[in-house]
Specification:
468 residues; mainly alpha; two-stranded antiparallel ribbon; 19 helices; 58% helix; globular; binds flavin-adenine dinucleotide; redox-active center; signal; FAD
């Protein structure tokens, strides 16, 4: 740990020296530089740099990931958007049209997806095919072998266990519905102002391991803030252990990603015939320009890259689970399912080959008792955040907020299950480690969102350069 701190302090010092020296010699910055000049080089707490991520993501990963996410297995996500907010009652759903979510009609979702959540077991698939022929899908549960039943029971137990970072949506509830993610894209909805701030505020204020006395900088709900409080905030953040700092960065990265998306798919024009969506450079600058945000914007973009690295690492770790011969991306269309599995494995191998992965071994590496407590705190804070998503007063934002927190929660579950994954049998039911279809769909779609944000940063960089 001591060596780690020394290295970190040295790294931060070097970055400070480099950036401060740089500023003195340069002519006035362009709009592109004001958003991006500080978003380059090494990321805090990591050995990776932004440029390596950009190249890897934009040219090698992004196109293939988009193709995978368009497949039937990944485009349908079951979600309960009607769960009541457990924290307060006054949620205004004041009818913004762009907040509406159109659920699927039951005949739109492939039967293979609807009928069971453990479809990737070879045995279960065979049984289901037989059952489908006999037109009695309902018999699947009872006809599973003893071994598979045992595994399913174990998985259910595991899903409720202390390894889960998210409050699982009750997808068996009559209120839960399938949503086609391609038809309900994450984009500008007009959800803003005190309602949206309240959510972000609760997420940060109550869940980021922060002493009450320290307010976040530029927080629109906190009054009387000034520069000195900003400095207190950052000296507090820097004084935190790497895990607590990581937690804040993950949330801030998710927040930045959502705001990149709404700036990239902004409602530019509306006529009675059609709506035009596209990049809104001013919106992007207001959120991320170094001067307009008093240095905050570039920091937030760096947090987005940090989130990218964490999810990338989780995907590289979970490869053995997907490589098992009896794992299937089951939708009922055999040829398509096999092709999609090949594409999924290709993507995961590409991810594994990434040279500068985040070293999660530095997480919870201290004293065993303390590490255990910290991991538990981390998990509880994260579960709390997933419950806050039920308070988001815009259904479209709630859908994507839920999906992305579940995806990040799944990534954290993977990172903390390394030994269980390593000990998984190569075939047959896995008792210790399991991912539900919901977790798989949210994991890849959440990563798809962050990957798209990184790609969008390149688009904004080009757009900003072209206007100056
Ligand atoms: P906000 O983004 O609301 O931020 C509030 C304050 O937090 C800022 O003033 C700043 O001090 C601080 N802050 C901002 N960004 C960061 C960061 N990255 N890290 C740390 N601190 C930060 N709107 C849409 O149009 N489409 C969506 O799909 C959508 N999804 C949402 C999902 C959720 C869960 C929530 C809570 C909101 C969502 N919104 C969405 C709303 C959107 O995120 C903003 O809240 C809204 O556009 C208002 O923006 P703002 O500039 O007032 O600041």
């Amino acid at each position: 740990m001591d060596r780690g701190w020394g290295f970190l302090i040295g790294l931060l010092g070097a970055v400070w020296l480099l950036t401060s020296g740089h500023e003195e010699q340069q002519p006035p910055e362009t709009a592109a530089q004001r958003c991006f000049c500080q978003v380059s080089g090494y990321l805090d707490d990591c050995t990776c740099d932004v440029e390596t991520i950009d190249r890897f993501n934009n040219y090698r990963l992004f196109p293939r990931l988009q193709k995978l996410l368009e497949s039937d297995y990944f485009r349908y996500y079951k979600v309960n958007l009607k769960r009541p907010c457990p924290f307060w009652n006054d949620i205004s759903q004041c009818g913004r049209r762009d907040c509406a979510v159109k659920p699927c009609q039951s005949d739109e979702v492939p039967d293979g997806i609807k009928s069971a959540s453990y479809k990737y077991s070879e045995e279960a698939n065979n049984l289901i095919e037989e059952c489908e022929q006999a037109e009695r899908l309902g018999a699947v549960d009872e006809s599973l072998s003893e071994e598979t039943q045992k595994a399913v029971l174990q998985w259910t137990k595991h899903d409720d266990s202390s390894d889960n970072f998210c409050e699982a949506d009750d997808i068996q509830s009559p209120d839960a519905e399938y949503v086609d993610l391609l038809l309900n894209p994450e984009r500008y909805t007009g959800y803003k102002g005190p309602d949206a701030w309240k959510i972000w505020n609760v997420i940060y204020e109550e869940n980021c391991f922060k002493p009450q006395a320290i307010k976040r900088p530029l927080n629109p709900l906190a009054s009387g803030q000034g520069k000195s409080e900003e400095n207190t905030f950052y000296s507090w953040l820097e004084g935190l252990c790497v895990e607590k700092r990581a937690f804040y960065r993950l949330i801030s990265g998710l927040h930045a990603s959502i705001n990149v998306h709404l700036s990239a798919r902004y409602l530019l024009q509306e006529t009675w015939l059609e709506k035009k969506w596209g990049h809104n450079i001013t919106e992007f600058q207001q959120r991320f320009d170094g001067i307009l945000t008093e240095g905050e914007g570039p920091r937030r973009l760096k947090n987005l890259y940090f989130l990218y690295l964490i999810e990338l690492r989780a995907l590289s770790k979970v490869l053995p689970f997907f490589e098992r011969p009896d794992f299937q991306l089951f939708t009922g269309n055999k040829i398509q399912d096999e092709e999609n599995k090949m594409l999924l494995l290709e993507i995961l191998h590409e991810i594994k080959s990434f040279p500068l992965h985040f070293d999660e071994n530095s997480f919870f590496a201290g004293d065993k008792k303390e590490a255990h407590k910290l991991k538990e705190d981390f998990r509880l804070h994260f579960r709390n955040i997933s419950r806050i998503m039920d308070c988001v007063g815009c259904f479209k934002c709630r859908l994507w907020g839920k999906l992305q927190t579940q995806g990040l929660g799944t990534a954290l579950k993977i990172l903390f299950s390394e030994k269980l994954i390593a000990n998984m049998p190569e075939s047959g039911p896995s008792y210790e480690f399991h991912l539900t279809r919901q977790e798989i769909v949210s994991l890849f779609n959440a990563f798809g969102r962050i990957s798209t944000s990184v790609k969008e940063l390149e688009n904004f960089r080009n757009l900003l350069q072209s206007i100056h």
